[in-house]
Design a protein that fits this description.
By secondary structure, this protein is an alpha+beta fold. The protein contains 3 helices and 2 strands, in the order αβαβα.
């Protein structure tokens, strides 16, 4: 993710805006990673999947 942010800063222009989004189950989303996502305006979706019988309803 950090590499994407570096590239965006290098080539950023008023004409073009990048928007980042991430879908995760949230298990590894600790404070440090969450702070990074907030700082760089990521849109974050948390996917809550369960057993097939419940998930597929």
């Amino acid at each position: 993710m950090h590499k994407n942010i570096e590239i965006e800063k290098k080539y950023k222009s008023i004409k073009h805006k990048l928007h980042y989004s991430l879908t995760t189950n949230g298990l590894l989303l600790k404070d440090e990673k969450f702070d990074f996502l907030v700082k760089h305006n990521f849109s974050v979706a948390i996917s809550i999947d369960g057993p097939k019988a419940i998930h597929d309803k």
